[in-house]
Here is the input.
Amino acid sequence: MSRTLEAEQVLDPSDRLYAIEALDISCWFGDHYVLDRCSLYMSAGEVTALIGPSGCGKSTFLRTLNRMHELVSIAKLSGAVYLDGQDIYAPEVRITDARRQIGMVFQKPNPFPAMSIYDNVVAGLKLNGVHVSHREKDDLVEDCLTKAGLWKEVKDRLRNPGGGLSGGQQQRLCIARSLAIRPKVLLMDEPCSALDPTSTRRIEETITELRSEVTIVIVTHNMQQAQRVSQKCAFFLAEHGQPGHIVEHGPTDVMFDRPQDPRTSDYVHGRFG
Ligand code: ADP
Ligand code: MG
Here is the structure.
């Protein structure tokens, strides 16, 4: 009974969108202070792009948003992350619940290569304790592959291994897998940096379509991509051995056309980084 209820909750597609807010997030790896009091409100149903030079803490920040930072044994953090007003670091929140609601897509596509396309999509369900019937599973697989922009290409070979797909298709398979557990937020860490331009554009189209389903936070080094896909932007910088911090954030068009800080202007115009 409780499992069915849980499945219904997780699979309810009519749920509203959630905002995610970081408040004064600071991070360390051992004694190395890498992020200094970062606060950012990431609006529900929008794409927020995190930009800035390598090593300024974008990935670290992203990983605090679904409690992956604490997977590193020497990692520490302070601050809070609110998902729809609930602090995901509160003692009563289970880490698995936080990660189920806040999914992650990585730089390098990481499907299970020997597992079928179909099984890849549903791979997260069992891990997250979600039970669905066979019939529901078929619908879910079609729905998630459609949303990830991959259904038409793979519908006749769902039993083929995920590893047989192209890099761009594998990344869309990973997006479908993330969507299957109905996250409220999807974190993407340079999801296109290993892909060719055509595959990159497909992922960007997918991101734009997904925005009505899930709040998205994406790290990108590609300024054109940030402009194409995001509504808000945050510019991170780590200067002179100091920990990374957010120099400026705001609507993407403002960040690119009339930023307040000269460092933002220099960065978005390719003058450094
Ligand atoms: P970005 O994604 O902006 O390139 P990162 O968040 O990966 O930056 O890194 C920020 C800082 O944290 C860097 O100095 C990096 O060396 C350090 N760092 C990242 N991951 C680890 C780790 N697992 N262990 C130790 N230091 C790390
Ligand atoms: Mg990174």
Observations:
- Strands lie at 20-29, 32-42, 47-51, 75-83, 86-87, 102-105, 185-189, 215-219, 232-237, 245-251.
- Residues 58-59, 219 surround magnesium ion (ligand 2) (CB under 6 Å).
- Residues 184 and 243 are 29 Å apart (CA to CA).
- The longest helix spans residues 134-147.
